[in-house]
Amino acid sequence: MINQLPPKIAAAIVQHKCTSDISSNIASITADINRCAIDGAELIVLPELHNTLYFCQSEDQTHFDLAETIPGPSTQHFGELAKKLSIVIVISLFEKRGTGLYHNTAVVIEKDGSIAGTYRKMHIPDDPGFYEKFYFAPGDKGFNPIQTSVGKLGLLICWDQWYPESARLMALAGADILIYPTAIGWDPSDSADEKKRQQTAWITIQRAHAIANGIPVISVNRIGFEESPIKDATGIDFWGSSFIAGPQGEILLQASSNKAECHIVSIDTSRAETVRRTWPFFRDRRIDSYQDITRRYID
């Protein structure tokens, strides 16, 4: 069944600078959401793990105390806010699923305040400054879009954005928009040229997902420098640059790389149909010849 999409969706990004004060972070985000709603936003997307500093810069068992259940305090707070403002909100949480079992989870809150659905991050990095495998079990909910009043949302999280398979599977399952809550930044010791290459690659790969699948992409990053608790480590300078791209990869809006800000853009939902008719990638896929894609490597 094909659900009827609204002809246009007013989508907002909240590019947030996180602090060590969780209450302050939530208050700041809440104020941003209120402003976006007043300005007409119907869908608001927050960055990855927005309630806290990016704690994965080190392996510290005390950080597990930051996790919360779903439903829990954050879903209740943002659920009440979504209901009051009659908006859809995408939040990102450190989920405590059970004793000793945790996930990096995105939650979609519907306009009535209910939880429309959740997605658990599938690809978990383990690199200097990004020690996520210490904290998060890989997601086990697959690549299934979440039905909402503003369409079927294909939720993916940060490291997932480098994998075309994830975007394709969400699109094949009927996603109307791909959404990536993100926490990505520079090593301050990198050269200016290297920083530019990394940032350009990050934007390019996600615009390519929009093009290859003929649907819009929303990517929302945090902003600002966060110090590492590890001695002599350089910390992470989160590069912001949150953006929304249309179904041909066209940039509809892009935030700065150096400040917290919110933006709203109107997404024309009819363009996906037009683009897919012009570039019928789904029609011409050779699904009879892709068996090796499930292999780790072709020796």
For this structure, what is the CATH class? Alpha Beta
Q: Count every helix, treating DSSP H or I runs of 4 or more residues as helices.
A: 6
Termini Cα gap: 41 Å
Largest sheet data: 6 strands, mixed
CATH topology: Nitrilase/N-carbamoyl-D-aminoacid amidohydrolase
What is the number of independent domains?
1
Widest sheet, order of strands: 5-4-3-2-1-17
Which secondary-structure class do the elements indicate? alpha+beta
Number of beta strands:
17
Please indicate the percent range of residues in DSSP E strands (runs of 2 or more).
25-35%
Order of helices and strands: EHEHEEEEEEEHEEHEEEEEEHH
Mean pLDDT across all amino acids: 97
Shape assignment: globular
Any idea what the CATH architecture is? 4-Layer Sandwich
Rg from Cα: 18 Å
For this entry, what is the oligomeric state of its chains? single chain
Question: How does this model look, in words?
Answer:
By secondary structure, the chain is of the alpha+beta class. The chain has a single domain, classed as Nitrilase/N-carbamoyl-D-aminoacid amidohydrolase, CATH 3.60.110. It has 6 helices and 17 strands. Helix 3 (164-172) runs parallel beside helix 4. The chain is globular, with a radius of gyration of 18 Å.
Search tags:
299 residues, Nitrilase/N-carbamoyl-D-aminoacid amidohydrolase, six-stranded mixed β-sheet, alpha+beta
In brief, what are we looking at here?
This protein has 299 residues and is an alpha+beta fold. The chain has helices at residues 22-38, 73-85, 164-172, 192-213, 271-278, 281-284, and strands at 8-15, 43-45, 88-98, 101-109, 115-120, 126-127, 130-131, 146-148, 151-155, 177-182, 185-186, 217-221, 223-226, 236-239, 243-245, 251-254, 261-268.
